[in-house]
Amino acid sequence: MSLVNQISVLPLRCIQPADGIEICPVDSVGVTEYRIPSSHETNLVHIAPNTVENLFVHHFQTDQLLVVKGKLVLVILQNGRYEYVLMSDRTPSVIIIPPGIPHGAANLTDQPCIAINSVIRHGTPHPWDYRPVKLPMPYDLDTIHKLLL
Asked: Across the chain, where does the E strand assignment appear?
């Protein structure tokens, strides 16, 4: 896993026990690649088509995101610049966002995206944690479009 204040991208190892069936364990004992720890809250998140979300910064929670349907681009603000991370149901990975990392999402496809956010709380949530942060610069929509192709 990465250092604190860095995101982590952890691919899931899936098995195919039979034709047409794929199983991707996310919290079973014996999974050595990644195991989602117990969370305080698990949310099903719907990101509508052609949606661009503002940045948010959570000070007292870690987000653990997994796309289960569709795809989106996670936008992370680190070291004064944006990093763009493609998340897709075709390449299941859990992205861990520790407290203090500004992040948002963009779904510029014509299909909805469904994700699971398994939240670990590090203190009492504050209303400011869920208010959009002013963008220091616009997102690079060309980069987001290219990643979603």
From this structure: 8-11, 15-18, 21-23, 41-47, 51-52, 61-69, 71-78, 81-88, 93-97, 103-107, 113-121
